[in-house]
Design brief:
This protein is α+β, with helices and mostly antiparallel strands and 321 residues long. It folds into two domains: 3-171; 178-252, Nucleic acid-binding proteins (OB fold (Dihydrolipoamide Acetyltransferase, E2P), Beta Barrel). Helices cover 33% and strands 25% of the residues. It has helices spanning 25-48, 60-66, 98-110, 124-131, 134-137, 161-171, 216-222, 263-270, 275-282, 300-315; strands at 8-14, 68-75, 78-84, 143-149, 154-159, 178-189, 195-201, 206-211, 226-235, 242-252. Helix 1 (25-48) runs antiparallel to helix 4 (124-131) and helix 4 runs antiparallel to helix 6 (161-171). The protein starts with 7 loop residues before the first strand and ends in a 6-residue tail after the last helix.
Length: 321
Amino acid sequence: MEEGAGSRLEVRLSGPGVRQGKVSVGDLSLIADAIQTSLERFAERATEGGPSLRRGPRSKEAKMLVGLFVTGIKSGSTVIEFEPSHGQVDLTGERLGASLFREWIDGIQSLEDPARPPPVKFDRGVLSGLHQLHSALARGIDKIEFEWKNHRHTSRGVFDAVTAKRTEALLLLPARNRRSIVGVMLEADFHSPDAAFTVYTTDGQSVRCTAGEEDLGTVLVGLMHMVRISGEAELDPTTGTIRTIRADSVELEGEGELPGYPVVAVHDFWSSPSITTLEERLGIRAYDPKQKGEWEPPTDDEWERYKRAVSDRRRGPPAVQ
């Protein structure tokens, strides 16, 4: 039997906020994005050996090995079925990347035991991607169970309050200039390889941030909402304030905007002043066609030079003989 015929990842949700056989679009997006982000970072860490957080897009090999499709939602609590996005197998008949799924789930299971050190491949990037699932726990989901199945192996792991707490504790271990901020995301630039955006914090600062392409969806959803950004920070050497953050975690903080300010206040903050107001501020006088200009008209020689310059430009450079 070929591995590609039966390989799948099942994610079972349980808790008071779970409806049998159904999952909200928001929860599905959050869970799928967290799983895919953590898996891709894990695959890159495993195949390339370096840190999973770095500038630039994720490697094509990592995406290929652990890419997922949602193939169905079943009842029995709620079970989301994922299938790997490619069907390539090695000479033994095992799907390429199958071991990565097993190792990733085994690593999640190891986080349940505080006495066990996390796997070496579970670096800060992998953990922060996984930790995004803690937002689902605040939505009435008590437990997220993972099960990878194929004709040879079955691996199981659980993400719950215990796992979330352990993950958070690992992420809080000392790191060079690691910082977290909470604020409203009001600007974003999607043209660069990395998503660039500005967060206006609750204490009145504006911090420029960048995040990898795996966080593009979260950045788009987070515009004009409260977010928590964590990552390596560049600090002002004089004041110690945060200048920029290279984010390894972008998390939505609830559904609202800046506490105490309605969404219309955000729109008003960014609305442009009227042309009349700008004219008054800059001292610009309105044009009156009847009023004689205060400038000197060009002389005949100046006018002729201008016409020759325009004519030469229209003709273009002389042809090369």
